[in-house]
Amino acid sequence: MNVSGRIALVTGGSRGIGRAIVCSLAAAGAKVAFVYQSNREAAEQLAAEQNALGHEVWAIQADVSQRAEVDSVVEQVLAKWNKIDILVNNAGIIRDSLLLAMSPEDWQKVIDTNLTSVFSFCQAVLRPMMSARYGRIVNMSSVSADFSNPGQANYAASKAGIEGFSRCMATEYAKRGITVNCVAPGFIETDMTTAVVNAAGDKIKSKIPVKRLGQPSDIANAVLFLASEESGYITGQVLKVDGGLTLGGTG
Ligand code: NAP
User: Which helix (H) or strand (E) holds 202?
Assistant: First the structure.
């Protein structure tokens, strides 16, 4: 997959899926800036490890739910590297509870972090991508966008919103050389899923046709493809990476 010499911006890169995406883009030759929120130690360690390998990887602290901070991140990357070819909107959170108990704050926090951040980053990178007549945008959805999980009304709404947003943006900017796609992971072993995996890991595995939980690298491989030059005829799509979880078979 060709991303050599490309400039990539990845949100939520300090841990989990985002960390794997940073490593795979850097290993494939891209220069990578990544955003983290609070885990400075993990972020700086990742940047140092990658720099020691000869990769150009840069950690930037910001809250993706704050528009001014998003604009500042994009300005910093443009000031350093002059362009942004690849944007991966990966940062995301869960605040699960049944609807009756869901606070307006937990609704808003998930929408702002997961969905509004995608709007903000996509809008902020659009002019430089349009000028370059090139862009690869990959937005992190979830099988929860169209697979019912009780307690995830806020999260499901944010991820379904990302998919609708991505299709619309893909149509608007295809003629400018910009593709916009989503990756929808199933159950991936990260901090986000530790509690549920500890409580019901074997039960979950039994429902996944490939009979294992996903690893962050499974998602990073799909993102690398959609971020590469070779994926240029694919836009507005959602690629499920879930081991067959949502196929509905009896497995
Ligand atoms: P994770 O391990 O909890 O990591 C979340 C990442 O997002 C961290 O780097 C975190 O930064 C960053 N982040 C969270 N809020 C932020 C904010 N306001 N501003 C900036 N950065 C913020 O999550 P994950 O499991 O890797 O999930 C990554 C993405 O995949 C999410 O969009 C998630 O919805 C999606 N997904 C995950 C699964 C799964 O099974 N794990 C399944 C479907 C979809 P800090 O380290 O600084 O806190």
Answer: helix 194-207
